Amino acid sequence: MLNELLAHADSLRDQINALRPFDPDQEARLVQKLNLEWNYHSNAIEGNTLTLGETRAFLLYGITAQGKPFRDYLDIKGHQEAIRFLEEMVRGGAVLTEAVIRELHRILLVEAYDVDAITLAGRPTRRRIALGQYKTAPNHVRTTTGETHFYATPQETPALMGELMAWYRREAETGELHPLVLAATFHFRFVAIHPFDDGNGRMARLLTNLILMQHGFVPVIIPLEARGDYLLALEKADAGDLTDFVVLVGQELIRSLTLTLAAARGEPLEEPGGLERRIQRLREQLAAYEANSGF
Fold first, then answer.
1. Is 194 a catalytic residue?
2. Measured between alpha carbons, how far is residue 136 from residues 86, 155, 162, 247 in Å?
3. Are 1 and 172 in contact (CB under 8 A)?
4. Ramachandran quadrant class, 100 (left: phi over 0; alpha: psi -120 to 50; beta: rest)
5. What is the pLDDT of residues 255-264, one digit of tens each?
6. Is residue 199 in some structural domain?
């Protein structure tokens, strides 16, 4: 299955490249759509409360919704700037380095902030999230089952990041790994280290897409609805089997490539069933409003 998926991705990329250059307006619409969905879904996976519509209104018109946390808007703003940073890297042929990763983290998080934390003794505290600096305190998390998921310690992190980047440079130079496998493996290894105090999931998805874009592919968008499958695939990778994770990322890559090919052919960018899904969501929202209003 994996080999077929890789061949399909290569075929779609080749078909897209054969149709370049695109109509400028159509390409602009495509980039806007992909970046909007990338921004919304990657932040929503981490708990951002803005809807897709609110994200779009903020990015396109600077409109904010009442009652939404200011931090949620900063996260959207920072993520959009991070995407622009990656696009400039791809255009300029820049190389991925640890310095780039630190700079990307600074751009993504916008400004330092405080979060709730737990001391080693189990007492609640507050911790300052620094920009562009590797973690200085453990950032293990408790899973829904009550177990602790352990990441690299602060002491281990610099060496492990050095090893990750050395591995990446070797693989990128040899070209033996398909770009999808390279990007997905990098994503897994980065998340396993969890090098920063915050923003690691968003960073991993940004870096995955940078690697894909540098190899002529388009961004992968992990949708919020696939969050459970995404986390489960990462758990399987932790246990030593990367296949499900590579396939999951690959399936989303196929979706993005298919959309890009449609744009290259001048076809509408609305996905099949998209209008029906929007109408259904509207019906559900109206039903919830009527229920809450007592009608």
1. yes
2. 27, 8, 17, 34
3. no
4. alpha
5. 999 999 999 9
6. yes
195-198, Cβ contacts within 8 angstroms, sequence gap of 24 or more:
195/101, 195/134, 195/135, 195/152, 195/157, 195/160, 195/161, 196/105, 196/133, 196/134, 196/135, 197/115, 197/127, 197/129, 197/130, 197/135, 197/136, 197/137, 197/139, 198/109, 198/115, 198/129, 198/139
Number of separate domains in the chain: 1
Does 149 reside within a domain? yes
Q: Is the pLDDT of residue 295 over 50?
A: no
Q: How many CB atoms lie within 10 A of CB 77?
A: 16
> Please, which contacts does 171-178 make with residues 24 or more away whose CB atoms are closer than 8 Å?
178/6
Q: pLDDT for 194-231, tens place per residue?
A: 999 999 999 999 999 999 999 999 999 999 999 999 99
- Are 79 and 55 in contact, with CB atoms under 8 Å apart? no
How many whole angstroms separate alpha carbon 188 and alpha carbon 137? 21
Domain at 143, CATH number = 1.10.3290.10
Instruction: Give the orientation angle of helix 70-92 with respect to helix 200-214, to 10 degrees.
Output: 20
Residues 6+ apart with CB under 8 A from 187: 204, 205, 207, 208, 245, 249
213 falls within a domain: yes
Mean pLDDT computed over 73-87? 98
The band of 128, judged by pLDDT with boundaries at 50, 70 and 90, is confident
Domain of 141 in residue numbering reads as 14-273
Q: Which residue has the tokens 């808007």?
A: 73
CA distance 197 to 131: 9
- 291 belongs to a structural domain: no
- Sequence letter at residue 227: R
